[in-house]
Amino acid sequence: MNGLKLLATGSALPSQVVTNDDLARMVDTSDEWITSRTGISARRRCAPGESHTGLCLAAARQALERAGVGPEEIGVCLVATLTADQLSPATACTLQQELGMGEDTVCFDLNAACSGFVYALHTAQCLLAAAPRKYGLILGAEVLSRFLDYTDRSTCILFGDGAGAAVVEWREEYPSLHAVLGCRGSQAIHVPGVAVGAPSHVRMEGQAVFRFAAETVPACIVQVLDKAGLGTQDVDRFVFHQANQRIIDLAVRKLKLPPEKCTGNIASTGNTSAASVPLLLDELVRTGALGPGQRALCVGFGAGLTWGGALLQLR
Ligand code: ACO
User: Is the overall model pTM greater than 0.70, yes or no?
Assistant: First the structure.
């Protein structure tokens, strides 16, 4: 067996809080509609002067300090994102320079949308097996507010900005993540790129994505547990991508999971795509809801369409 353990987490949220009432002054919606259909009450948004890179740096510094690991000890640095400040250099390369990681650190950004952090964990596990230094710095970060159409009530209410970071360690004797990753290529969620003439805002077929998530999230959890030879009772926390509380509730009911092991933070963060799982992980660790030696089953899904699940044990 070989795999990863989670040593520490960190997070950074931008200063601006956007409430449902704030949005109701911009589009035809209401706090009641948003809360009952999504579970979201507020989300964070970058103000002028705040940036994706700044959030990543703050979250990464916090995670390194809490782990007691120096930047020079990191063998692999990955940033899961689809909204970096620029296409190149990758955010991970900027972190290498700003934090002082070694020049032989493997650094790159990875785009698997809301599944990105889970994809990055699995990628790190594979890369760290071959790396000279066995610590990984893994981030999920987004500034989706840059790509929102604040006249489209079906999307602008959903998304928020933020960054989460994790320091992991690979060892021969540590348990595998037993990751399950998948993709069903589709344009059901589209985040614009740099193509000339491309629309500049997120657009989404909400109901189709909802059905996709309702199907894949429970299936992914079952597959991870089957791979690990474990049952739901062996998991201390289910860390769901915070996209819509109704999607989480469906999975909880379908798999008969104890609701107290499935709590999240969607009410205050909204959907922060790749940042969602590490932001929640950080909150659970900080509040003591996840403690030493415990197992968290992380599950993400989103644009691509992609999904991913992984079992992450704390040191
Ligand atoms: N306020 C008030 N009414 C609204 C709003 C709003 N903000 N948004 C939509 N409506 C209206 C619609 O216009 C529609 O009205 P109509 O019946 O008169 O046509 C009605 O509400 C119902 O619309 P639906 O789209 O059926 O609403 P639904 O209950 O499906 O909720 C939502 C929409 C929240 C988007 C939901 O479909 C969803 O969460 N989908 C999944 C999204 C997701 O998980 N994305 C994850 C990945 S994101 C990424 O990867 C970047």
Answer: yes
